[in-house]
């Protein structure tokens, strides 16, 4: 059987999405054990139609009729009428190095444009060197900390202007 990877929108409150997010949260808590160092907040209504989206990558067999296992995710939420924030980017360790994060980021950019965003912003941790490299390769540059990250010394905020 040949595995296929499919990226699609998903309800962030579904049990399978919650299980993936719990893996992300556990990894981040290990990397950043300091009190107040993690920023997990993403309210379900922030990814509702017209306000944002939550997407996943599913690993499924072409010969199977099952929907597949979630192996990666990412989200955007609108910050205002022209800017969206990338949130909850994660790929299971077993699926890293396959370009999934890059594909999810590109999908999120498409969604952001459809929502009218002309700028994407994000926060990542200073210890997440692979994530920082991904964002830099994708055109993001460092910016001043914003919102809930303003006083977080372990946060690195980045942004990218979108076409249009």
Structure description:
With 164 residues, the chain is of the alpha+beta class. It has one domain (3-161): Gcn5-related N-acetyltransferase (GNAT) (Aminopeptidase, 3-Layer(aba) Sandwich), CATH 3.40.630.30. It is 25% helix and 32% strand. The protein has three helices and seven strands. The protein has helices at residues 15-31, 100-114, 129-137, and strands spanning 3-9, 52-61, 69-78, 83-91, 119-125, 141-143, 155-161. A seven-stranded mixed beta sheet has the order 1-2-3-4-5-7-6, with helices on both faces. A hairpin with a 7-residue loop joins strand 2 (52-61) and strand 3 (69-78). The longest helix has 17 residues, at 15-31.
Tags for this model:
164 residues; alpha+beta; Aminopeptidase; seven-stranded mixed beta sheet; 3 helices; 25% helix; 32% strand; globular
Sequence-ordered SSE layout with sheet pairings:
Elements: E1 3-9, H1 15-31, E2 52-61, E3 69-78, E4 83-91, H2 100-114, E5 119-125, H3 129-137, E6 141-143, E7 155-161
Parallel strand pairs: 4-5
Antiparallel strand pairs: 1-2, 2-3, 3-4, 5-7, 6-7
Order of strands across the widest beta sheet?
Answer: 1-2-3-4-5-7-6
What is the succession of H and E elements? EHEEEHEHEE
Work out the helix count. 3
Percent of residues in helices: 25-40%
Please state the structural category. Answer: alpha+beta
Low-confidence spans: none
- Our count of domains comes out at 1
CATH superfamily, by name, is: Gcn5-related N-acetyltransferase (GNAT)
Task: Average the pLDDT over all residues and give the rounded result.
Answer: 92
CATH topology category name = Aminopeptidase
CATH C-level label? Alpha Beta
Major sheet description: 7 strands, mixed
- Overall geometry comes to globular
What is the beta-strand fraction? 25-35%
């Amino acid at each position: 059987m040949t595995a296929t990877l499919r990226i699609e929108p998903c309800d962030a409150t579904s049990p399978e999405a919650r299980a993936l997010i719990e893996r992300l949260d556990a990894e981040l808590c290990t990397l950043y054990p300091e009190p107040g160092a993690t920023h997990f907040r993403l309210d379900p209504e922030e990814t509702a139609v017209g306000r944002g989206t939550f997407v996943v990558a599913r690993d499924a067999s072409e010969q199977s009729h099952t929907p597949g296992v979630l192996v990666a995710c990412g989200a955007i939420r609108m910050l205002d009428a022209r800017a969206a924030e990338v949130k909850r980017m994660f790929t299971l360790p077993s699926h890293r190095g396959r370009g999934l994060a890059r594909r999810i980021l590109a999908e999120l950019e498409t969604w952001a444009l459809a929502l009218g965003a002309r700028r994407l912003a994000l926060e990542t941790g200073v210890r997440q060197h692979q994530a920082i490299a991904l964002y830099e390769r994708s055109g993001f540059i460092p910016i001043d900390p914003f919102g809930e990250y303003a006083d977080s010394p372990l946060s690195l905020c980045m942004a990218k202007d979108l076409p249009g």
